[in-house]
Design a protein that fits this description.
The complex is a heterodimer of chains A (609) and B (262).
Chain A (H helix, E strand, L loop, with lengths): L7 E10 L3 H12 L4 E4 L16 E2 L11 H11 L6 H20 L14 E2 L9 E2 L5 H13 L5 E3 L2 E9 L2 E9 L5 E11 L20 H8 L4 E2 L4 E8 L13 H4 L3 E3 L13 H4 L6 H8 L14 H13 L9 E4 L6 H7 L1 H11 L8 E10 L2 E2 L13 E3 L16 H23 L7 H16 L6 H15 L6 H19 L11 H25 L22 E7 L5 E7 L5 H7 L3 H6 L3
Helix pairs in contact in A: 1-4, 1-12, 2-3, 3-12, 5-16, 10-11, 14-15, 14-16, 15-16
Chain B lengths: L1 E11 L2 E11 L5 H11 L19 E4 L2 E4 L14 E4 L6 E3 L2 E2 L2 H9 L18 H11 L6 H5 L1 H4 L10 H11 L9 H6 L11 H5 L6 H18 L1 H10 L3 H14 L1
Parallel strand pairs in B: 1-5
Antiparallel strand pairs in B: 1-2, 3-4, 3-5, 6-7
The chains are: A alpha+beta (609), B alpha+beta (262).
């Protein structure tokens, strides 16, 4: 018999779930506020997906172009997000990002410098001015290592290779969480006043993805089961440039920094096809001739930006269309050429990991030959719905930040806005979760609830016969790729949702080897119970939004609609246990922000304060 | 597609043995893909670590045909078509299960190192330093903590002197702090006494296995050894040590002296 009293119990004021950039930053803030802080991570510390972020961290420091300021960053973020962002979050982000970057420097990060010795900034898609503080093409690694080396001296209890199962509640409030240690397979109960989710997205639901095994929507699903609302899940970002050859590396990210450094996209006729895909909204700010685009690369401040640096949704769809119309590269993508644009020395200096990645995994020398690239599922704009000021969910004591939270990016995220998001909202969630702890006491936990969570997990081990979790996961990935891919339509989505329903039955029958110690099959089976919820939520949100906007494209509704701007899609677990979808009307934007978002650049540049 | 033979070590702290598998392989596959194939089709209980699958996180360190490598960056076509590829866990750290080892000792070493202590910002709120200062430490900061260097270091692997030497990974970290353009802490004494810089006998095995191609020995360990020598065995510095004991001024003078030496 299971005796809950025998299970290891650890008490914290705040428990942070996830140890990527957002999670560590949140934990640092809680510790700073004097909270007894714990942080759990699925992997070892320092291995989170943040290491994969390459290009940089967007912040209007104005070091490279002094015309930049927070208002222009805010405006770019809103335009990139197709105005579906939470206005206040985009404002907070643009205003606070510079301080968060400087703070990271004081924790030890070493950013590339300008000639004057200041933090250097690079160009990126959708950002009007060079804005991304960076470290070659490994900014994410610099960020996570800096936070990691800093956080180990802050008195935070770091619980590595510890996998969260579900949130515990009492009187409707958070009271703790049940997890298990990968190493031993033993369970652990965390008692906490507040929990911050920083668990990332659910990119592993697709077969072509840049995401690692950890990205199974755990936070989304746990929050959903605990009664929290999810929002904007139809907006999934397909990064336009993932590797496509050889098959085993399909999906691995090729940084947008390649285009930021001057890289161009070509089809099999050697045409720079992006000139044919400039949306009307961006036409006045985008170069319309190769000559002008090249002048921009040479540093002419009067020249407009090349179309390769349009937002990710636009570039991904352009590549898809070239392939569809028979102008794709040999293996079904586009050519990304930096070799003819920059010297070998410059490429190796500015894009060292890309150079190695292609050399070692694809046997391509990017200083001599073009890369072959195609869209890869990269990022969730949607996630857990949070209050735009405090990052709290509708469950008292539960907070979310980073990729698993919705709101900042709207319908499409700009490159470079993720690393800054992690820091800005990691800090804020830590701040407000600490405030919550000061006003609330530790709730009691229910033995029955704990027992149920544990039984659900151990049932997988105790079956005589059952289904293979890895094969079910593969099936799910195929369903999402085929039915909820980069271009969607009603019939496909409905069919996809039906297939997901069938898969749920299979998941009930999943079985793992009975050894609970470091058992990947067991982990995969538990992940399935989360990723299936995230997948269903994406498919259902995609079905209900009858328009195309940002990271959500419908063949049957190819245009943005006026009405589409008036609501966000919300997902909630219904009282009958079924997933409920609804459209929630957006409130009127604050006047001062709407004025900035619709201003001309000239007005904002003059108004630099 | 073709079939290839693999031999994978499975076991626990009590012991284990190699298990043979015949796996269908595709063009461009890496060793980590094979581990995943085995988990999916043959043995869902085979324990292995991985994350990014792109050589950036340093999770999937193993020994492949006796050579310490990242599973995700080792292509099968590096080996002869008929050659059996053998995958074992890294040897220097205790086994947890199969290909997973207990690397927590490394996290303990990191925690022992005195943290970064930045100088004051300029009056306008900025830090200023030159790209060449950045380039020097960024080589060290490229480290992905795969611990392959720790795994091959003789001091740790063969002589079991984990209590005397922090290993190449943390000599690298110390170098990144000591040469950090903004850092004001002095760790020279600890580098000698606590972290055991004298234990390294410069065989460069760590440098050879580094997947990031960091010149660990030449650019990090040797300069640190030189700094220790300068402080402890240089007659000029000995005199200064006597006069100034452990004052801030002394640290400043040592640092400026070292700059002129380099």
């Amino acid at each position: 018999m299971l005796d809950v009293k025998e299970i290891q119990t650890i008490e914290h004021d705040v428990l942070v779930v996830g140890a990527g950039g957002a999670g560590i930053r949140a934990a640092i803030e809680c510790a700073k506020q004097g909270m007894n802080t714990g942080m759990i991570s699925k992997s070892l510390l320092g291995k989170a997906h943040t290491v994969m972020a390459e290009g940089g961290m967007a912040a209007a420091l104005g070091n490279v172009d002094s015309r930049d300021n927070w208002k222009i960053h805010f405006r770019d973020t809103m335009r990139g997000g197709k105005f579906l962002n939470q206005w206040r979050m985009a404002e907070l982000h643009a205003k606070e990002a510079p301080d968060r970057v400087r703070e990271l420097e004081d924790m030890g990060a070493v950013f590339d410098r300008t000639e004057d010795g200041l933090i250097n900034q690079r160009n990126f898609g959708g950002h009007r001015y060079p804005r991304l503080a960076h470290v070659g093409d490994r900014t994410g690694l610099e960020m996570i290592r800096t936070l990691q080396d800093f956080c180990i001296h802050q008195g935070i209890a770091i619980h590595m290779e510890c996998i969260a199962l579900d949130v515990l509640k009492n009187n409707g409030k958070v009271s703790g969480l049940v997890a298990y240690w990968r190493e031993t397979g033993r369970f652990v109960i965390f008692k906490a006043k507040a929990i911050i989710f920083a668990t990332g997205g659910a990119g592993r639901a697709w077969s072509v993805t840049s995401n690692s095994w950890e990205y199974t929507g755990d936070g989304l699903a746990m929050a959903y089961r605990a009664g929290a609302e999810l929002m904007d899940l139809e907006f999934t970002q397909f990064h336009p440039t993932g590797m496509i050859w050889p098959p085993s590396v399909k999906g691995i990210l090729v940084t947008e920094g390649v285009r930021g450094e001057g890289g161009i996209l070509l089809n099999n006729k050697n045409e720079r096809f992006m000139f044919n895909y400039i949306p009307e909204k961006f036409a006045s700010e985008t170069a319309d001739t190769i000559e002008e685009a090249d002048r921009w690369l040479d540093g002419d401040k009067e020249a407009r930006r090349p179309p390769e640096l349009l937002t990710r949704d636009v570039v991904a769809k352009a590549i898809m269309n070239e392939v569809k119309e028979g102008r794709g590269s040999k293996n079904g993508g586009a050519y990304l050429d930096i070799a003819s644009r920059q010297s070998a020395e410059h490429i190796k200096k500015k894009l060292p990991s890309m150079y190695h990645q292609f050399k070692e995994l694809a046997e391509v020398d990017i200083t001599a030959d073009p890369m072959e690239v195609g869209p890869t599922l990269h990022y969730f704009m949607g996630g857990i719905k949070v209050d735009h000021e405090t990052q709290s969910t509708n469950v008292p004591g539960l907070y979310a930040c980073g990729e698993c939270a919705a709101g900042l990016h709207g319908a499409n995220r700009l490159g470079g806005n993720s690393l800054s998001d992690l820091l800005v909202f990691g800090k804020l969630s830590g701040d407000y979760a600490s405030k919550y702890c000061q006003k609330n006491r530790l709730e009691s936990t229910s033995e029955q609830e704990i027992e149920n969570i544990i039984r659900n997990a151990t049932d997988i081990l105790n079956k005589e016969e059952g289904k293979n979790p890895f094969l079910i996961h593969e099936n799910l990935q195929k369903i999402m790729n085929n039915h909820v891919g980069i271009v969607r339509e009603e019939k496909e989505l409905i069919e996809g949702i039906e297939k997901i329903e069938t898969l749920k039955v299979d998941i009930q029958e999943v079985k793992a080897h009975p050894a609970s110690q470091y058992n990947p099959g067991w982990n995969a089976a538990i992940d399935l119970s989360n990723i299936i919820i995230a997948s269903e939520a994406v498919a259902k949100s995609a079905l209900i939004r009858e328009e195309s906007r940002g990271g959500h494209t419908r063949l049957d509704y190819p245009d943005e609609t006026k009405n589409g701007l008036e609501y966000n899609v919300i997902i909630k677990k219904g009282t009958d246990g079924k997933m409920e979808t609804r459209k929630e009307m957006r409130s009127t934007p604050p006047e001062h922000l709407s004025k900035i978002a619709f201003s001309s650049l000239e007005e904002l540049e003059e108004n630099n304060e | 597609m073709s079939e290839r033979k693999f031999s994978v070590w499975k076991g626990t702290p009590e012991g284990g043995k190699l298990h043979d598998y015949s796996i269908e392989v595709d063009k461009g596959m890496v060793v980590l893909d094979v581990v995943h194939e085995i988990q999916k089709l043959h043995d869902s209980n085979l324990a292995a670590r991985w994350n990014c699958k792109a050589g950036k996180c340093g999770s999937c360190s193993v020994e492949i045909n006796g050579k310490p490598k990242l599973g995700c960056m080792t292509r099968l076509n590096e080996y002869g078509e008929d050659e059996t590829i053998t995958i074992r866990p890294i040897k220097t750290f205790p086994i947890i299960k199969d290909l997973v080892t207990d690397v927590s000792w490394n996290y303990e070493q990191n925690k022992k190192i005195a943290p970064f202590k930045p100088r004051e910002r300029d009056a306008d709120g900025n830090h200023r330093f030159m790209q060449r200062d950045v380039d020097r430490v960024q080589e060290f900061r490229k480290c992905i903590e795969c611990y392959l260097c720790q795994n091959v270091c003789h001091v740790l692997r063969d002589h079991e002197k984990k209590n005397k030497f922090v290993g190449p990974r943390f000599m690298l970290r110390l170098a990144s702090l000591e040469m950090h353009p903004l850092d004001t802490e002095n760790r020279i004494e600890d580098i000698k006494k606590e972290y055991g810089s004298g234990m390294c006998n410069i065989t460069r095995c760590c440098t050879d296995v580094c997947p990031e191609h960091i010149q660990i020995t030449d650019n990090a360990i040797i300069p640190l050894k030189e700094r220790v020598v300068d402080e402890y065995y240089d007659p000029f510095m000995k005199l200064y040590n006597k006069i100034f004991k452990k004052s801030k001024l002394r640290i400043y003078i040592i640092k400026s002296y070292l700059v002129t030496l380099r």
